[in-house]
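Please, why this fold?
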Amino acid sequence: MKRLSYLLAASTLVLAACNTAPQSADTSMGAAATATGESPTARPSTPARPIDAAAVSAGQQVFATYCAVCHNGADDTAPQIDQLHTFQHERVTAALSEGGLMTLQSKALSPEQRAQVIAFITAPVDMGRGGTSTIMTAKEEYREGFAYPVRSARDPRDSSEVPRPPSWAAPKLGDGPFESESWEQRNLRTTIVTRGLEAPRAIEFLPNGDIFIVERAGTLRIVRNGKLDPKPIAGTPAVNANLGIATGFMDIALHPDFKNNSLVYMSYHKPRGDLGSNAIFRGKWDGKAIVEGKDIFVSDDVDTFYSKLKFDNKGKLYATIGGPALGTDASMMRAQKADDYGGKTLRLNDDGTAPTDNPFYGRKDANPEVFTMGHRISLGLTMNPSTNEMWATENAPYGGDEVNILRAGGNYGWPVSSEGRYYSGRSISPDPSQNGITRPHITYVPSIAPGGLVFYTGDKFPAWKGNLFVAAMRMGETPRTGHIERIVFNNKWEPIRNEMLLLDLHQRIRDVEQSPDGYLYAITDEGADSVLLKIEPGK
């Protein structure tokens, strides 16, 4: 039975590794306070400001709606509400201003809402500023007509009792170029193609070398001849990006016969009142805009997250849909139910219908589009050009990130089997080998927060042909450790060695792709400081 659930921002906590990077806390305040012997959480005295009780109350609601998803303790790179309450008015205002650390997030607010949330964060204790529990609640909330919680209850396994250090934002990249070395392709040169990207989620090359770039907030950008068009592309669907960092505009893919039919596919969260559903939109690219666009698939489940798209060599469209990644079993076990779209990979015809040879087609207890199940959050999807099998990345909480080979009807285990741990440190499954569970092809302990992935087939890097490149956002829950993972295989596609590229840039790498002329491109996920990178052989 197809069902609905409440898509609330809190569930889009997903994994801290997936969070967009700009943080409202920097390291300067904590460091300076420690150096002087003061408590880093003590707000310096400032002249008293007039207090508007109504603004504080309204600001608490704004915070609960737009901010708490990252600042309620689930994202360990974002300061929690108790720490935010120690910040001075000037600091919070600067962070939410144009060009500030939270520029992207502040664009979701009206000037009035911005003023209200600043009033709430910086209000005195007796004004009721003591945090919010409207996102992750102490008790699960159900609504009539929904078979699973519409609000996830925070489970003790979702967080650690160990105090967290202050946030540590990534350094802004210089102008470059950046010279580096790798083992088998010794000299590398990395350049910045364009800046000006805001929380990009995916890149896709057109046959002529132009580049589509998806931004989470709902805009589709294009790079022509190495220049970013300042105007977003028209004709894309309306996106609900206010439900947390794991929702919004997710991915884009070209039809295999794009040169003849100009068809473009986009995955996104379709607004549904105060909810959102994963959807796939198809339109035609006329060289300037997307025209004749319409939805070809809309999930009737909500509280589901990231999605990726990829066509196989037979013209079938694969789409991942992330499931609830935190909460009690009532939320997370949805990945184990074949009649729920959460935590699944779908296989579709190019018109959005379900192929009749899908493994669950015709079953009354399953959705016919489902191809694989038991997934948490998949941020990468590609086809191995040698085996014609789909490979996908998957994020676990802490350790246990995976690269999976997707096979029809496979159950990949989440949340009953994993080689990782919950954020509390507790093992997810002491024995991940269980009957009926497909083990991952590659496992990462510690985690690398894997994003997009691509097999290299070009001729610019001869020593890399056949290697798998995986975007990685951070290792072991530590900021500034993003990189590109290069994996070498034997003739049975068993991994035999790995190498980290671009680690010295200290950037979260969200997606990696091969251009038509054989170079590698990647996007960083650093909020309003995100860039498009090009990797080529050096001298």
Q: What stands out?
A: Residues 53-71 form the longest helix (19 residues). Residues 36 and 65 are 37 Å apart (CA to CA). Confidence is low (pLDDT under 50) at residues 1-46, 125-137. Helices lie at 28-35, 53-71, 81-84, 89-95, 103-106, 111-122, 258-261, 329-332.
